[in-house]
Amino acid sequence: MPTWIIEPHDPLIVRDGRPFGPDPGVRAVSLAFPLPSTTTGAARTCAGLNAQGQFDPQRIAAVKQLAVRGPLLVELDENEDVAWYAPAPSDALMLASEKQDDTLAIRRLVPLALPTGATTDLEASYSLVGRRQREKAKVSGQAPQFWHWNRFEQWLVAPQDDDALRASDLGLAGLLRDSRMHVQINAQRQTAKQGALFQTVGLSFTTRDRRRLALLVEVAQPFPHFAGGMDSLAGERRLVTWRQSAVQLPTCPAELREAIIRDGACRVVLLTPAIFRAGFRPERLLRPAYGVAPRLVAAAVARTQVVSGWDLQVQKPKPTRRMAPAGSVYFLMLEGSPSARAAWLDAHWMAVVSDDEQDARDGFGLMALGVWDGALQAMGEDDARS
């Protein structure tokens, strides 16, 4: 499948849901990271261009069928080689260190067995996710939003606690935000309108030490009449460069594959936000497939995100819907034979698992897999009192 690198040259404005009208003092604030709908819409625009470089409205229905995976954050070096990033997994608890530098302590969150007599408001089939013992340290405010892929892969294969982990070695705190003040211009006089100031806040794809960041997407088919080059993306049509790349999405580590097949259990980690009909709970992911009947045991899901947008085909706003954010972790039991588990794993590594087929084609719910032994950990005495 063709893979494209989208490198912004200006800070991108990917709007949140706050109003941005013609009122003085209004602010256009960006999300922390572009949603799949932003890059998928741009990719489908490229796919719908005709030989003259204009978008053909007659191709709207066709390009909506184009499947896109991403976006993922990448770093580019002087040779255009790619270094991957992944969203921070929600089963990694980052605690502040007593030191004054950027040292963190990382703790693994696991499904827990309740003490005798304890109850929760969860369904009986679901377990809590947490620590076996109470942690006295506070949650760190320096926890990276994006992990280097090698660190992320280590967490998928062999998650371990660590008391001396530097935040800068783990990944990026997040994309830098670029704030700019603007003034409304009187079209007739070409002068500034008194008091009509407004602000935009965009996402910078350059780090403080001048490293180049970009977005990467994989599309199901080549673009008929677009070979790359300069284009615009997101709010205010900020400039980006599209370049096709030979790089492919990361493959499943052999030791991870062997462990999941052996243990009959796994973690699912969302690399992009997912849209599920039942809120946090996936439906498509839990359907029997390839001889495996997945069973959801527990989930670590951060605060809900929302998505809307504009439907170009019907010229109306899209409905606002809730999403399970990127980094959410689902603990599954895989009931089936080892050969069936192998087939299921191969089909689901880097698959897109939103419930609705169109949401999946749009790139919502890209996932990776991690190891889990399938066991519930006993809560410690401190946990039972808290």
TrEMBL record:
InterPro entries: CRISPR-assoc_protein_Cmr3. This is CRISPR-associated protein Cmr3. It comes from Candidatus Viridilinea mediisalina.
